[in-house]
Amino acid sequence: MGFLFSKPSYDPRRDIPDLTGKVILVTGANAGIGLQTSEQLAIHGAKVYLACRTESKAKAAIAGIEDRTPSLKGQGRLMWLPLDLSSMRSSKKAAEEFLSKEKRLDILINNAGRLADDYVLSPEGVELSVAVNHLGHFVLTTALLPLLKETARRPDADVRIIVVNTFRLS
């Protein structure tokens, strides 16, 4: 029970290793946990793809990170990758675009999500929360898996797939 009464000792400035040369893709990176994660990974040297639906929000997120950390400006380490997880076609297209640009993928962070809301169907006829929270990430991850496996064979590799799950208690 010590964790309940002790102060957390994790400090990203100290505890995230040097990520220079690593390539990371974060879904839902324009706000919240995805934005903060992307920022810290870029600060520590990684090239980070912010996989988001809306170009304006993604570019605003990148500008915000660069404003808070001016040393990242012009480094080409923060990139927008168009991704709408409600569409399996968009998820596949995003993976194909990423694969056309990169020869490695060290970390895939499946962070984006949709909170429970009204029953709405995706463009492909799937309930929207299921499409965004499950199927879109499945298609993206499956399409990127060969590159993740290839990267894992490198001597400098430490490949990860991270799934972030947030929920709201009401």
UniProtKB/TrEMBL annotation:
Molecular function GO labels: oxidoreductase activity
Keywords: NADP, Oxidoreductase
Entries under InterPro entries matching the protein: NAD(P)-bd_dom_sf, SDR_fam
Keyword Cytoplasm: no
Lineage: superkingdom: Eukaryota
UniProt KW Oxidoreductase keyword: yes
Family, similarity comment: Belongs to the short-chain dehydrogenases/reductases (SDR) family.
Protein name: NAD(P)-binding protein
